[in-house]
Amino acid sequence: MTVLVFLDPAHPDGRIADAGVPALLATDQGVTRGDGIFETLLAVNGAPRKVQAHLGRLAASAQSLSLDVPGEEAWLRAIATAVGAFASASPPAPDEDGNTNVVVKLIATRGPEGAGSPTSWVQATAVPPALAEQRAHGLAVILLDRGYDSTVAQRAPWLLLGAKTLSYAVNMAALRHAHAQGADDVIFTSSDGHVLEGPTSSVLLAHLKDDGGAPVKRLITPSLDSGILPGTTQGALFTAAKAAGWELGYGPLVPADLLDADAVWLVSSIRLLAPVNSIDGTEIGTAEVRARLTAELSALLAQTH
Amino acid sequence: MTVLVFLDPAHPDGRIADAGVPALLATDQGVTRGDGIFETLLAVNGAPRKVQAHLGRLAASAQSLSLDVPGEEAWLRAIATAVGAFASASPPAPDEDGNTNVVVKLIATRGPEGAGSPTSWVQATAVPPALAEQRAHGLAVILLDRGYDSTVAQRAPWLLLGAKTLSYAVNMAALRHAHAQGADDVIFTSSDGHVLEGPTSSVLLAHLKDDGGAPVKRLITPSLDSGILPGTTQGALFTAAKAAGWELGYGPLVPADLLDADAVWLVSSIRLLAPVNSIDGTEIGTAEVRARLTAELSALLAQTH
Fold it and tell me: Which chain B positions have a beta carbon within 8 Å of A66's beta carbon?
């Protein structure tokens, strides 16, 4: 079940479209050039989570691509329409906590060639069951070179490294490469050996220290200036973790930092916190610590909005 | 005027679709992930040029992306249908040589999420008038860092550097960056300083040598192992130039080689040979030599198929 709602000035709440019927022109530059942007967020019990963070990142991506997208009000109304229509048409079963979840994707393309106006829509779908599996059982991850060095984002804005574009063919190819090797997912590294992000996720790691004084729990993520996407889930979790007494840290990180960690996660708005069991075959921490920290941080994340 | 012909097992010659009516599902991974491939070729007097080279490169791109696309016969029939329908609907005016030209684009995406079958179509359109301008008047070009080093393509196949994918957002952003600086186009360089290619073209350069012995004319292009797309126009022109007495050379090339050249061109199947007047503000050769060599090589290219 997929609900589509197109942003359309003639329909202030968005125009619902049948997802089984073609809705895009074949000349749309979203498809002919991968020229557009997107966001994916979770709606819990009908309320889109971290919606301002997602709309803010969408606006930043639009600016990187010189794309003139609709304003926040139009997106918010279309999201509400899509989530409402999805709940009516295909009420999601409550999760283990009694919440209902819907995946909400926002897409804006440069529109048909020559038209000069973007095509923008919201899509609502069910949460893929595989993600709960990933949270429960963890991931085998491989490291893959992303080809860029960790300084290029700053000096080459045309590479769009901080923008969430529709040009995801490399991200998808990296995931296929991992699956062909029997792994579940990927952590990209820069050509100069820094840890970056996953193809569809941010990377977090935890270091615990208990040297006789007060125990210290540290949550760390690669620094943004290495050319990664600012993670909305990472951001929300950092705020919550800090309030709960965690120390926060920001890269540069190298693969050895991952292997030394007590736990590593791939995090995203839909997947939430998926623990990494192994990287290139080396186990990260212990199953007991991974499970305990995943439960602790997942509980913190669930309290964010 | 755009003619669309979808490859469809129920229609051996392809299924003509109205380009003004939505033809793609909004869940097609061509748009949601830029996950697909394309080729652009020229049909002259109804005959697609270098069609085997384009179909061969399409097949190679499909293999890089593990994409199961229709076979050559289906593409050839759909191309013939599209070119024929375009000629009937909107007969192109003959060019300066009395030929009629049609732009033919082949696109294959991974298809709608969950469907497991690609979406494939052929698009026929008129040649943009700007391209004849570019051939006649030449281009102001800037060099931009592509971010990748010249060896990464070999060791990181998931970066899809030799594949012509739909994920062209960076190519489009680089062109916008050039236009914002008052330039017409871009030549990408690798992070280790090698000349690569344009966002939608191959790079060629000519060196003339006349040291008292027999004059030598040398045509040079960056080597493929630097992670560039194999140019079908470059390939056809090299064959024709060799037969006409030119020496051929293959990079590695550095920007100084471009600035030292007697002429530099951006070449592609639709644009053909567009001379580069200047790179980062430095004139390449002289207007007289650029014009003479452009005429000579364009005549050779016109004889290829």
Answer: 176
* Topology of domain B133-302, CATH: D-amino Acid Aminotransferase; Chain A, domain 2 (3.20.10)
pLDDT band at A53 (very low <50, low <70, confident <90, very high): very high
Q: Which CATH class is domain A2-127?
A: alpha beta
SS3 of residue A300 by DSSP: helix
* CB-CB under 8 Å, A2 with B152: no
Task: Tell me the ipTM for this assembly.
Answer: 0.95
Q: What is the pLDDT of residues B40-68, one digit of tens each?
A: 999 999 999 999 999 999 999 999 999 99
pLDDT, residue A46, reads 95
**In this structure, are strands A119-125 and A2-8 parallel, antiparallel, or unpaired?**
antiparallel
Distance from CA of A200 to the nearest CA of B (A): 11
Contact B166 A169 (CB under 8 A): yes
Which CATH number is B2-126 given? 3.30.470.10
- Domain range annotation of chain B: 2-126, 133-302
Q: Spell out which residues of chain A touch residue B22, defining contact as CB-CB under 8 Å.
A: 21-25
Quick one: CA torsion of B139, B142, B144, B149, rounded to 10 degrees?
Answer: 70
Choose the closest CB to A158 out of B109, B148, B177.
B177
Distance CA A42, CA A301 (A): 13
